[in-house]
Amino acid sequence: MTAPRKVHLAFDIPVVAECDVCIVGGGSSGIAASIAASRAGAHTILVERYGFLGGTSTAGMVGPFMTSYSADGTQRVVGGVFQEMIDRMVELGGAIDPARTEAGSAYSAFIELGHAHVTPFHPEALKLAAMELVQGAGVRILFHTSFVHALLDAERIEGIVVHNKAGLSLIRARNFVDASADADVAANAGVPYSKGRSSDGKMMPATLFMRFGNVDDARLEQYARAHPGERLFEGIVRQARAEGRWDIPREYLNLYREPTPGEYRVNITRLHDIDGTNPDDLSRAEIEGRRQGLAVFRFMKANCPGLENVTLLEMAAQVGIRETRHIQGLYTLTGEDVLAGRRFEDAIARCAYPIDIHDPTGSRGKLIGLGNSAADTERQVKPTAPAFYDIPYRCLVPVRVKNLLVAGRPISATHEAAASARVIPPCYATGQAAGLAAALSVQQDHLVASLDARLLRERLREQGAIV
Fold first, then answer.
1. Coil, helix or strand for 258?
2. Is the peptide bond before 64 cis (omega within 30 degrees of 0)?
3. Cα–Cα distances in Å, from 66 out to 42, 114, 266, 352?
4. What confidence tier does 216 reach under pLDDT thresholds 50, 70, 90?
5. How would residue 374 be classed by pLDDT, with cut points 50, 70 and 90?
6. Per-residue confidence band for 3, with pLDDT thresholds at 50, 70 and 90
7. 392 forms bridges with which residues in the sheet?
8. Which residues are CB-neighbours of 182 under 8 A, at least 6 positions away?
9. What is the pLDDT of residues 139-169, one digit of tens each?
10. What is the DSSP string of 187-246?
11. Helix (H) / strand (E) containing 83
12. What are the φ and ψ backbone dihedral angles of 99, each rounded to 5 degrees?
C-alpha cells in the first residue's frame, strides 16, 4: 500500500507570548535587531534554534568578520551594535579590533583586496559577548526554539508558530523581523523571492569551516612572503592536483590567523549544488564537508610549510551557507549600485566589501572591488574610490506582508550585490536598522513601509550606527 503524500492535522496550540517586536534568528542581524528594538522601548522577543547566539559566526565558525571599513581603508563604515560587539570581545580577550589589522597580513589570509581591517575573533568570545549585550538590552531570549509557520491575517502576520521542548506554540507580535538568514518567515508568509544567479538559479557553494592549532606562525608567514602575487599554497595545490593528490574543488588555501598565536580559521572546503533551504542538500553538505575537511587537514600536515605539526581544534557545528533566498523588496540592490558606490536618501547601512562571488560550478571565484568594472575577474589592488555604497531601507521591506522586515543575508538584492552585502558587518547594520524600524513603527502606529526614513536614520545615529 502506497503511503499518502500528505496528511492533514488540526489541533489547538497555546499562545505563549505577546510582544511588540518578535525577531526570528539569533545570528548577526538578529542580535543587532533585538538590541536595537529593545533599546528603543519595544517589548522584544528573540527566537533562536540553538542554545547560544551568533549564527554562522558561532555555529558555523565563519570568520574573521570581513572589513567594516571603507574601500580605501581610511574610515569605519559600520558601527553601532557591531562595534559594541567587537569592544566586548576585545575586553574578554577574544578579538582584535579591526583598526589593528591590515590587508595582506596573516589575519587577512595574506589577501589584499577588500581585506583591510578584518576582525579576528574567537567564537566562544562572541557567544558570551552577544548574550551579555542582548540580555543587557532587556530582550527576552527563547533558545532551542525553531520557527515553524507564519499565521496570516490578510497581509499581516498575526503570529508565528514555533517548536521547542514544550511542543508547538504561538507568539503574537505587532511587527516581526526575519533574521533567519534564509528568509524563512518571509517565504512562508508568501513574500516572493529569487535564488542564486539570474541565468540559472545556481547558488554560491557552501563551506564547512574549521579551526587549526599549533601552526608555526613564522614559517607560514615566511612562505607567504616568499610567494608574492600567489594565493596561499596555490603552487603546492596546483602540483598536487596535477599528480592526482588533491580532489577538493579549491585552488588555494585560505587560513586566517586568530587572536591566539598558532591558531587559524580555515576556509577551504567547497560544496557545490547545495540549496541551504533543502534538508537533503544540507545533510549531504555536512557529510561531504567533513570528508573534505579531513582531507584538507591531512594534506596540510604532509605538504605545507609551517603546518607540519598542525592540530585540528574543531569543525563547525553547521555548514556555512553563502546564498539562498533573496526577497523581493521595495528596492533591489544591484551589482551596479555596489561598484558605483551608490548613495540613497533612505540609506540605513554602509558597506565597502567587494563583490565576492564563489563560482557555483567551479573552483575559483571573482573578487571585484568598488570602483572596478564588472568585467574584472580579480583585482589584488586597493581601490581609491568610491569609499563605500549605501543599503537603502527599502531593501529590508518586503512586498505583500505589511508588518515584516527582513535583515541580513536575504535582503532584496541581486546575486551580484548580495555577494558583497552578505558578509557579517553589513548584516549587523541591516539588523540594527530593521529592529529599530520595527520598534518605531509600533510606537507611531505606522506600517513599516510608511516609516519616515529620515527619523530612522536620525535614531540610528543616536544608537551609534554609521549612516
1. coil
2. yes
3. 31, 8, 14, 10
4. very high
5. very low
6. low
7. 347
8. 276, 277, 321, 324, 325, 409, 410
9. 999 999 999 999 999 999 999 999 999 999 9
10. HHTT--EEES-TTT-PPPPBB--EEEES--HHHHHHHHHHSTTS-TTHHHHHHHHHTT--
11. helix 80-91
12. -60, -20
Side-chain half-sphere exposure of 93, counting CA atoms within 13 A: 2
Q: Residue for cell digits 537533503?
A: 280
Of the candidates 37, 80, 55, the one whose C-alpha atom is nearest the C-alpha of residue 176 is 37
* Cα–Cα distance measured from residue 269 to residue 116, given in angstroms and rounded to the nearest whole number: 23
The amino acid at residue 168 is L
Amino acid identity at 108? S
For every residue of 361-384, DSSP letters joined together read: SSS-EEEE-TTS-TT-SB--S---
| 196 HSE (CA, 13 A, CB side) | 17
Q: What is the 3-state secondary structure (H, E, C) of 87-101?
A: HHHHHCCCECCHHHC
Question: pLDDT tens across 66-120, in order?
Answer: 999 999 999 999 999 999 999 999 999 999 999 999 999 999 999 999 999 999 9
Q: What is the per-residue pLDDT across 405-435, written as a single tens digit (0 to 9) for each?
A: 999 999 999 999 999 999 999 999 999 999 9
Which residue shows C-alpha cell 533558545?
A: 143
* Dist. CA 329–CA 405, nearest whole Å: 9
The pLDDT value recorded for residue 180 is 98
For CA atoms 191, 412, 23, 174, give the dihedral sign.
negative
CA distance 201 to 109: 30
Q: Record the cell numbers describing residue 369, joined without a space.
A: 572591488
Does residue 435 contact residue 16 with C-beta atoms inside 8 Å? no
Per-residue pLDDT at 363 exceeds 80? no
Strands (E), 274-346: 311-315, 325-327
Residues contacting residue 442 through CB under 8 Å, at least 6 positions apart: 20, 21, 42, 174, 175
Q: Contact 306/262 with Cβ under 8 angstroms?
A: no
d(CA 355, CA 368): 5
Q: What is the pLDDT of residue 377?
A: 46
Distance, in Å, from the CA atom of 107 to the CA atom of 217, rounded to the nearest integer, reads 11
Do residues 78 and 429 make contact, with C-beta atoms less than 8 angstroms apart? yes
Q: Which residue has the higher pLDDT, 347 or 377?
A: 347
pTM of the model: 0.96
Grouping H, G, I as helix, E, B as strand and the rest as coil, residue 417 is helix
CA distances from 449 to 30, 53, 191, 331 (A): 20, 28, 14, 12
**CB-based burial, 15-54: b 16+ in 10 Å, e otherwise:** ebbebbbbbbbbbbbbbbbbbbbbbbebbbbbbbbbebbb
| Strand bridging mode 140-142 / 15-24 | unpaired
